[in-house]
Design brief:
single chain, mainly alpha, two-stranded antiparallel ribbon, 7% strand
């Protein structure tokens, strides 16, 4: 958290993957609250990015096949600033809000738990 705060304070971009792992199914999985917490505490904008096609990059064979990877970039947005009393429920709500913005950039088959059912 200290390092992330310092990177942002230095005016640099901080890339985060809210799920903290690669999905085995190529679908969005429940995210951890760290991204939302950092964004709220630092007051920086969030730039949602949806990436598809990386599930086809496996083993050495992908070098010959060159699978198509697509990167969709959304509009930046801010989370509301919060005082020192941020509840777990509020943090979960903000985390879901971030993930929903990412899911909007993905085809339905990749949206996983953040898809509109």
């Amino acid at each position: 958290m200290r390092r992330a705060k310092q990177v942002l304070a230095d005016g640099l971009a901080l890339v985060m993957f809210p799920e903290a792992t690669r999905s085995k199914t190529a679908q969005l999985q429940p995210a951890l609250p760290g991204s939302a917490l950092i964004a709220i505490r630092s007051g920086v904008p969030i730039l949602p990015v949806g990436i598809t096609g990386t599930e086809r990059i496996k083993g050495i064979g992908w070098v010959l096949r060159r699978p198509r990877v697509t990167v969709n970039i959304g509009r930046p947005f801010y989370l509301p600033s919060a005082g020192s009393k941020l509840t777990k429920a509020e943090l979960a709500q903000y985390t879901n809000f971030i993930m929903e913005r990412i899911a909007e950039l993905l085809p339905p088959q990749y949206q996983g738990v953040y898809g509109k059912a």
